[in-house]
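Subject: sequence -> structure tokens, single chain

Hey, anyone have a minute? Need the predicted structure for the following. Not urgent.
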Amino acid sequence: MKIKNLHKLFLTCNSICTDTRTIKKDDLFFALKGEHFNGNKFAEIAITKGAKYAVVDEEEYVINSDYILVDDVLNTLQQLARYNRKQLNLKIIALTGSNGKTTTKELINCVLQKKYKTIATKGNLNNHIGVPLTLLSMDENTEIGIVEMGANHLKEIEFLCDITNPDFGYITNFGKAHLEGFGSIEGVIKGKSELYNHLKLNDKIIFINKDDVIQTKQLEDYKNHYSFGSSDKSPQVHIKFIEANPFVHIKYNGLTIKSRLIGNYNFSNISAAIAIGNYFEVDDLDIKSAIETFKPDNNRSQFIEKGINKIILDAYNANPTSMKAALDSFANLKDEPKIAILGDMFELGQDTDKEHQAIAEYATSLNIDTIYLVGKNFYTSTFNSPKINRSKTFDDLKASLKVSPIKNHSILIKGSRGMALERVLELL
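Reply:
Had a minute. Here:
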């Protein structure tokens, strides 16, 4: 079936669904395949549960006209998303970067919602499936779309840009994330910059953080940009950092904005949302209100008081750059005493040993009293200090904390998603 004709059917449906557990009446079901499942096998279930049509790519699963046979379900989903985007009269902001993508996306959405009807990526559904699903959730009522893009290898952002065709773009930062796929920090910069290359090629607008030396150098010759920052490099929107103890407070256009976000590293995320709100002419007081009412969740920079402990839970994910930033911010807090519980960082490839060793050494150099290192990568790192307590597994950490409970401390919990360090909360 031609994409144009499939799009006509799509417009008669409620929404897109790829999981029969969440199917709703009149959904359009896409029978995606995974490493351990074949979505075609669930097409009949989808129809039975109320789906209007099911898109499949194996002829044996076509029962009647409710089943739409295509060559490749995933490719069809992506092509349909591209086609839908082209039909809509809206502006799309694309967002990528090594750290802070989801928080920045949520902040931007909160700000722009004060004036516009927006659709933003849900959670961190930012890959080759999530981006098409986001585009297909937009309709003629959407005025601005905010699309988060993730990548762990070269050409992935380029591919997502081809589907999304963004009008604006912003890269949060370039950090040591997904080194296994990108190969090096230079590979990260090259991969993430595919967004800026796409925008330059199409003469679209780029938002630049002038406090970021790499971004500024990369884009110094590109005139079609909108800049922000706290430096004296003449940004178009000037934002001043006040403090982060623990929440980030800033000054903007004579207003003091008191966020609920923790850590100096969130200053640039907040600044980007303010600058983009400024570009789209959102009222300053509305920008202030949006930032101040935004509350992080899902284990991202959450401040939790549990008993007599104050906890910074930043356990959604981790890489060497975000780990170092979290440690710096935590060490600068006025609270005493401090404990850091750090979990393994994943997808670092050949740099795994070196990066875990470096973080262990760096953490001990800071104003932090005790450092718990959790996971096989940290466990095998050889740097030693009286501050360090190593646990090979979470159960080992659990046993250690049972013997020596933590009481009346400020605690940083940080690790990669696979470590699920939010479980530490149950032990405190």
